Amino acid sequence: MSLSDYPFSREAASRVKETGYSLDGLLDEPNPQPRLSRLVRKRAIDRVLGAVRGEISDGQAHPLAELLSYPLARVMVSCLNDDLLTRRYALAEAKLASKKMVREDLGDLLLLARDLDVHPQSDQGGLRVHFSDYLKAAHRMRSPGWKLVNRSLEAGWVGVTSQELARLLEERAKDRVQKGLPLQVPVEICQKLREDLDLIEAELKVKRAEEKVDLGEVTEDAFPPCIREMLSQVANGTNLAHTARFALTTFLLAVGMEVDEVVGVFNTSPDFDEERTRYQVDHISGKGGTSYRPPSCATMATYGNCPGEDRLCRWVNHPLSYYERKIRSLKRQ
Q1: Which of 86, 103, 80 is nearest to 6 (CA)?
Q2: Long-range contacts of the stretch 260-268 (C-beta < 8 A, 24+)
């Protein structure tokens, strides 16, 4: 296992300290090791720009440059102090690590797990994770297969495969990366990085503009699994729970459906009352002075309204983000 593959690990942080390099030393001019400094800075920019775009490349940088680029990337993210960038960066670093985890042998994976405060057991009975560690890692994972009630649990231990362990560690890695961000970075350090930060800010501006793309007509094919499942239940005459009805209503209004259309969606419900439904939809739409945003994926899962994630779900944390991404994908086809 290479420490540069998992720069968020405690062992990697210790190795960085042992090198004796400092931010001032890497950024100051003239630099005693200009080639290494250029590699570190370039890879740090690659990491942050990759996060903005959705994926950090699996670079083949010099191992020391790869290791040192991680703390510099965190400094860049901290200088910009942007919530969207911070979330994207943590997710992208975790995804990059996940690609490498699946290539590790079990022994190295167990070492990494312990570094991330997960302590699996592995013997002839298989691979197991204590339920407390399991819940810390799996609480945001929305697929029913990850719910503790659907797992094999014996004496407090949850059976997992090595691939599932890697997926759990991905979540722990994301938490580790995001912990402490933004850092308290001296103004003079941010000033030295100004040229790089301007490049990142420009890319972030472009990304935000893309995500505000005109969605056009409502496209049901782009609805996330949770919304499709709710619509299916309503069409089959099922009374939705209050939380599900609220989520469905806010989502449909947010993607551009009119109040009349949303009211019509519920007319197959056994307890349908048009006057009452219209009043509720009007209120949620903002006619009472307060408009409501659809619940996040985490909230949907908390209330049992997530039927299970598909591939795209893993890259978003909100049903509207899913819809917007799917719309852009469909437009490119």
Answers
A1: 103
A2: 265/231, 265/234, 266/234, 268/234, 268/235, 268/236, 268/237
Nearest-angstrom CA–CA distance, 30 and 32? 7
Instruction: Identify whether the C-beta of residue 114 lies closer than 8 Å to the C-beta of residue 102.
Output: no
Residue in 270, 247, 238 with CA at minimum distance from that of residue 322:
247
Non-local CB neighbours of 238 within 8 Å, separated by 6+ positions:
269
pTM here is 0.67
Task: Kindly list the distances between the CA atom of residue 91 and the CA atoms of 39, 80, 206, 226, 315, in Å, as whole numbers in the listed order.
Answer: 23, 17, 19, 22, 8
Contact yes or no for 140/298 (Cβ under 8 A): yes
What are the tokens at 272?
């349908």
> What is the pLDDT tens value at each position of the chain, 333 positions in all?
889 999 999 999 999 999 888 887 788 766 667 788 899 999 999 999 999 988 899 876 688 999 999 999 999 999 999 887 998 899 899 999 999 999 999 999 999 999 999 999 998 889 999 999 999 998 877 677 888 888 999 999 999 999 999 999 999 999 999 998 999 999 999 999 999 999 999 998 887 666 544 445 678 889 999 999 999 888 877 889 899 999 999 999 988 888 888 988 888 777 777 888 888 898 888 876 677 889 999 889 888 899 988 889 988 889 999 998 898 888 776
Q: Find all residues with CB under 8 Å of 155, minimum gap 6, and list them.
A: none
Q: Measured between alpha carbons, how far is 67 from 16 in angstroms, rounded to an integer? A: 7
Residue 304 CA: distances (Å) to CA of 39, 168, 251: 47, 21, 17
Tokens 């912990």 belong to which residue? 179
Q: What type of residue is 124?
A: Q
CA distances from 79 to 95, 194, 202 (A): 23, 9, 14
Contact (Cβ atoms closer than 8 angstroms) between residue 306 and residue 296: no
Tokens of 81: 């102090």
